[in-house]
Design brief:
A hairpin with a 5-residue loop joins β4 and β5 (122-133). The chain is α+β, with helices and mostly antiparallel strands and 190 residues long. The strands form two sheets. Strands 1, 2, 3 and 6 form a four-stranded antiparallel beta sheet that branches. A four-stranded antiparallel beta sheet has the order 5-4-7-8, with no helix packed on it. It has two domains: 3-35, no CATH class; 71-184, Sandwich (Immunoglobulin-like). 15% of the residues lie in helices and 36% in strands.
Length: 190
């Protein structure tokens, strides 16, 4: 060990020996506690970035699924990632469908935008339901949910899409598409 390294180690030891009894090292010892995640209450939570293992957006109680009789058709449900609209300062997402093995060629398509909050919840900020939608997508054949942003803070968003084929029993699954978007909404949930 070189002489300079020995001197450096001795100096560190002296500083530690003098500082510890005075409590000067306490902030260093507790530094991990300062950055450790803490549970945030629902009321105190703010919009944030979802961790990779974030749970799915919760289904609102009024949209709870019930047992259905045997299903007769399976539409294909599609949606895009949440994104900034061509209208400045607005977040947007869309939902559409393809006919799958369904006989009817019209459906009701609902899509909702959910914003991630630091308490681990996804909160619904915008929803749209479009009826009489033909399969295939395109600007005339889709549902569009959007809402004005309060700021350009980067936040995690999910677009949940549900399709109900007119006049047929169909599957009840939904799809979620997620993206981080430079849009935060601090206003009321919907």
């Amino acid at each position: 060990m070189s002489g300079d390294l020995k001197k450096y180690i001795v100096r560190i030891a002296i500083v530690a020996a003098v500082s510890a009894p005075l409590g000067l090292l306490a902030p260093v010892a507790n530094a991990a506690q300062l950055v450790a995640p803490q549970k945030v209450s629902y009321e105190d939570a703010v919009p944030g970035i979802a961790p990779p293992n974030a749970p799915p957006a919760s289904t609102p109680p009024d949209a709870a699924q019930t047992n259905q009789p045997a299903l007769s058709c399976t539409p294909e449900t599609f949606g895009d990632n949440p994104h900034l609209s061509s209208t400045p300062g607005v977040i947007s997402a869309h939902g559409w469908w393809k006919q799958g093995n369904c006989s009817n060629n019209k459906a009701t398509v609902e899509n909702c935008l959910y914003e991630f909050y630091t308490d681990g919840t996804w909160r619904r900020k915008a929803c749209n339901t479009a009826s009489g939608i033909f399969p295939g997508g395109g600007s005339a054949n889709r549902s569009a949910a959007n809402r004005a942003c309060d700021s350009t803070q980067t936040i995690s968003w999910r677009n949940r899409v549900d399709v109900d084929v007119d006049g047929e029993l169909d599957t009840s699954e939904t799809i979620d598409r997620q993206a981080d978007v430079n849009c935060a909404i601090n206003g009321d949930d919907q």
